[in-house]
């Protein structure tokens, strides 16, 4: 069965520091991969997505993610975190034979220290 | 333009009552999805619609849950005889077409509390 694991439930980084959020997936074929962000009281917003091709994808708000097939990973990165990045981040897999269904990880809550 | 809207934003109900949650997708989006976000289960997929049709209802947690979509637009998620374990945030999303690649745009959710 397809699954997504985000090993870190909560991460705290200092403002201006770099960030990496981990995501591992289990899926038989090359998956469609997504990162969403959820700010308090807000809906989910798509940061970036990967389907094929270049394994380093750029997203909004200065985020990027790298697909590594050998590690079944799709980690999210940002070189310099801003206080406004504090939110919950969700990695998701979109199986390509189940309509548009998304399977989400448990989420990583990011706190930013001033 | 308008995004996905959901109503009500908050709903408190008593155990055993029925509730209806509404979703207005982005105009022109043919695909609509319902998800549930709860502390114990994280974000879980419930059901999707292609137009007014829901080909796969296997994600609905029990037969107390049902959903419909009319006119290829508004969708209603109904929970009958609510239980405390139904307490969660119910999220709706829509996309232009039904495809794993297509971006899903999420609404703000309905927070359901069952007392």
In short:
The complex is a heterodimer of chains A (114) and B (115). By secondary structure, chain A is an all-beta fold.
Please write out the topology:
The complex is a heterodimer of chains A (114) and B (115).
Chain A: E1 3-5, E2 10-14, E3 19-21, E4 24-26, E5 32-38, E6 44-50, E7 56-58, E8 64-68, E9 73-78, E10 87-94, E11 103-104, E12 108-113
Chain B: E1 5-7, E2 10-13, E3 19-24, E4 31-38, E5 42-50, E6 65-69, E7 75-79, E8 88-95, E9 105-106, E10 110-114
Parallel strand pairs in B: 2-10
Antiparallel strand pairs in B: 1-3, 3-7, 4-5, 4-8, 6-7, 8-9, 8-10
What does this structure look like?
The complex is a heterodimer of chains A (114) and B (115). Chain A has strands at 3-5, 10-14, 19-21, 24-26, 32-38, 44-50, 56-58, 64-68, 73-78, 87-94, 103-104, 108-113. By secondary structure, chain A is mostly beta strands. Chain A has one domain (3-113): Immunoglobulins (Immunoglobulin-like, Sandwich). In chain A, strand 7 (56-58) and strand 8 (64-68) form a beta hairpin. Chain A is globular and about 45 Å long. The termini of chain A are far apart. Chain B is an all-beta fold and 115 residues long. Chain B has one domain: Sandwich (Immunoglobulin-like), CATH 2.60.40.10. Chain B has no helices and ten strands. Chain B has strands at residues 5-7, 10-13, 19-24, 31-38, 42-50, 65-69, 75-79, 88-95, 105-106, 110-114. In chain B, strand 6 and strand 7 (75-79) form a beta hairpin. The mean pLDDT of chain B is 93.
């Amino acid at each position: 069965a397809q699954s997504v694991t985000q090993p870190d439930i909560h991460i705290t980084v200092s403002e201006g520091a770099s960030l990496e959020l981990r995501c591992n997936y289990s899926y038989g074929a090359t998956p469609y991969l997504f990162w969403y962000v959820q700010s308090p009281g807000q809906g989910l917003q798509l940061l970036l997505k990967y389907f094929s091709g270049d394994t380093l994808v750029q997203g909004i708000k200065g985020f990027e993610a790298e697909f590594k097939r050998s590690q079944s990973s799709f980690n999210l990165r940002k070189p310099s975190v801003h206080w406004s990045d504090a939110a919950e981040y969700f990695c998701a897999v979109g199986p390509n034979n189940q309509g548009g269904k998304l399977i989400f990880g448990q989420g990583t809550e990011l706190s930013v220290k001033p | 333009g308008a995004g996905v809207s959901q109503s009500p934003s908050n709903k408190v109900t008593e155990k055993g009552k029925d509730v209806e949650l509404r979703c207005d997708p982005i105009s022109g989006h043919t695909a609509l999805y319902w998800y549930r976000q709860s502390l114990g289960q994280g974000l879980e997929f419930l059901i999707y619609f292609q137009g007014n049709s829901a080909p796969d209802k296997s994600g609905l947690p029990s037969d107390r849950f049902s959903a419909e979509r009319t006119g290829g637009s508004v969708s209603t998620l109904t929970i009958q005889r609510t239980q405390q374990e139904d307490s969660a945030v119910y999220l709706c999303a829509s996309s232009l077409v039904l495809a794993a690649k297509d971006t899903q745009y999420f609404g703000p959710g309905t927070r359901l509390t069952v007392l």
